[in-house]
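Long-time lurker. I teach an intro course on protein structure, and each term I like to show students one example going from raw sequence to a predicted 3D structure in C-alpha cell notation. This year I'd like something fresh instead of my usual example. Would anyone be willing to generate the C-alpha cells for the chain below so I can use it in lecture? Attribution to the forum is fine with me.
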Amino acid sequence: MRFFGTTWVHHDGRYGLRRVAVAAGSLAAAVAGCLVLRFAYQGLETARVGGFVDLLVVVTFSVCSAVAFRKTWEGFSRRPADPAREESLRSLRMIGFIGALLAYFLRSLTEAPGEKLRRAEYETALARYQKRQGARTGNPAVRRKPRRR
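-- Reply from a regular --
Happy to contribute to a lecture. Here you go:
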C-alpha cells in the first residue's frame, strides 16, 4: 500500500497506472535479483567450492523464496496471528526476497497488494464511526439539567 496512498479507497488518482508501475517494478526487481544470484552462483563455480556447497546454496535460496512467497501472500489477506513469529522470519524472508517480489507482482495484477485486507478494515472502521455519529443527538453541553426539588 505504500505506493498507493489513499488512491485505493476510490480507485482514483491514477490508481491503475500505479498498479501497472508496481507490477512492472516488482517484476523488474525480481529479475534483477535473479541476475545477482546468478552472478553469485557463477562466483561459487569459479571458486570451485564443490557440488555440495552449490547444491546447498540452490536449495537454501529455493526454500527461502518459497517461504517468503507464502508468508507475503498470506500477509495480503490477513494480519499475522503472532507478530513475534513473523519478526523471527524476517531474515528468512530477506534471503528469499525473490519469492516476496513475485508474490507482490502477482497480487498487483488483480489489486493493490494488501487492498482487500485494508478495505475490510476501512469499511469496519467506517461503519463503527457512522454508528457512533448516528447515536449522537445535538450538543451535550446544551442539555438541560434536571431540577432538584
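Some talking points for your students: Helices lie at 7-10, 15-47, 51-75, 83-88, 90-95, 97-108, 115-135. The CA atoms of residues 65 and 96 lie 4 Å apart.
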